[in-house]
Amino acid sequence: MKEYELVFIVHPDLEENAFTDVVDRVKGWITDEGGEVEKIDLWGKRTLAYPIRKQTEGQYVLMETRMEASFGPQLERNLRLLEPIMRYLVVAK
């Protein structure tokens, strides 16, 4: 398994429970495929460099993970289809 960093930006108007559900859902996708989430770092609400979907703020989340490289495209597809996630980036360490 390879190490990855996953950063995603969640819609700023989401309630705390809904935000936690989004983070848990992403973590579940990784663990269900045999990966591990080593660390979750919630950066909180920050101003965006440019507007995304007419929003100027977003809630940032950083996950340090270990997963199979073959799962990457499926994870990116799931992130793209999850409505509250405005942007994401998966980087190999």
Strand order of the largest sheet: 2-3-1-4
Unreliable stretches, pLDDT < 50, 5 or more residues? Answer: none
The proportion of strand residues reads over 45%
Order of helices and strands: EHEEHE
Q: Using only CA atoms, what is the Rg?
A: 13 Å
- Morphology: globular
Major sheet: 4 strands, antiparallel
Derived structural class: alpha+beta
| Number of E strands | 4
Query: Counting H and I runs of at least 4 residues, what is the number of helices?
Result: 2
Q: Please state the average pLDDT score.
A: 95
Amino-to-carboxy terminus distance: 12 Å
* Helical residue percent band: 25-40%
Outline the structure in words:
By secondary structure, this protein is α+β, with helices and mostly antiparallel strands. It has a domain at 1-9 and 40-56 and 67-88. 29% of the residues lie in helices and 51% in strands. A four-stranded antiparallel beta sheet has the order 2-3-1-4, with helices on one face. The longest helix is centred in the first third of the chain and has 17 residues, at 16-32. It is globular.
For the structure shown, list the relevant keywords.
single chain, 93 residues, alpha+beta, four-stranded antiparallel sheet, 2 helices, globular
Topology readout:
Layout: E1 2-10, H1 16-32, E2 36-52, E3 55-67, H2 72-81, E4 85-92
Antiparallel strand pairs: 1-3, 1-4, 2-3
What's a concise summary of this model?
This protein has 93 residues and is α+β, with helices and mostly antiparallel strands.
